[in-house]
Task: inverse folding
C-alpha cells in the first residue's frame, strides 16, 4: 500500500474547498457567537475568490442564513446612484439616490447608520412595509464609497453596536 503526503498548501486548499461546500452556520448561540463562527468561514471563502459579485452573493446568503434577518444585500455605487447588487430576501428597490433613505445617507456620510425604527428615520425608503429596523455599512476604497451593505429586520430595534462591529469587519473582506 502506497502512502501519500500532502503539502501544507494542498491541505489548506482542501480545507478551503471543504469550507466553501459545507459552510457551518450555528443555529443557536448569542449574536456574538454566531458572528465569531461565520467570520473565519467567510474570510476563507472570499480571500481567494477575485470576483466581487460572487463574494457579495455568498456574504449576503451566509448572513441571512446565520442571523435570520428579513433582507440582506448590497447596493453598488454606479454614477450618482446606488444600484441593487446581490441580495437575499424579497424584491428590493433597484436604484437609490445619493443622500436618500438609510442607504443613500450612509453613502453620503460615509459612516455606518443604525436605525432602530425605520418609521422614525426621516426620508426612509420603504422597499418593503415589513422592514422595521435597518443597519447600513458603507464599503470604502481610498475614502470613496464603492457600495453599501444593507441589512433589514422585520422587528424593531434588532441591531446594535455588536452588529455594527461585525458587519463592518465582514464587509472589509470585500476587495474593490
Result:
Amino acid at each position: 500500500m502506497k502512502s501519500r503526503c500532502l503539502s501544507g498548501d494542498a491541505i489548506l486548499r482542501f480545507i478551503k474547498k471543504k469550507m466553501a461546500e459545507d459552510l457551518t452556520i450555528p443555529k443557536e448561540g448569542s449574536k456574538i457567537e454566531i458572528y465569531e463562527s461565520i467570520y473565519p468561514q467567510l474570510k476563507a471563502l472570499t480571500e481567494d475568490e477575485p470576483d466581487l459579485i460572487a463574494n457579495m452573493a455568498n456574504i449576503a446568503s451566509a448572513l441571512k442564513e446565520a442571523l435570520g434577518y428579513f433582507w440582506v444585500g448590497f447596493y453598488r455605487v454606479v454614477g450618482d446612484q446606488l444600484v441593487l447588487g446581490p441580495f437575499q430576501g424579497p424584491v428590493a428597490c433597484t436604484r437609490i439616490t445619493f443622500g436618500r433613505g438609510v442607504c443613500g445617507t450612509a453613502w453620503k456620510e460615509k459612516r455606518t447608520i443604525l436605525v432602530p425604527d425605520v418609521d422614525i428615520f426621516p426620508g426612509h425608503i420603504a422597499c418593503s412595509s415589513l422592514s422595521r429596523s435597518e443597519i447600513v455599512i458603507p464599503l470604502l476604497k481610498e475614502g470613496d464609497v464603492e457600495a453599501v451593505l444593507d441589512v433589514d429586520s422585520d422587528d424593531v430595534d434588532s441591531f446594535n453596536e455588536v452588529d455594527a462591529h461585525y458587519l463592518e469587519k465582514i464587509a472589509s473582506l470585500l476587495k474593490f
Summary: Strands lie at 71-78, 81-88, 95-97, 113-115, 133-141, 144-153. The chain has a mean pLDDT of 89. The chain has five helices and six strands.
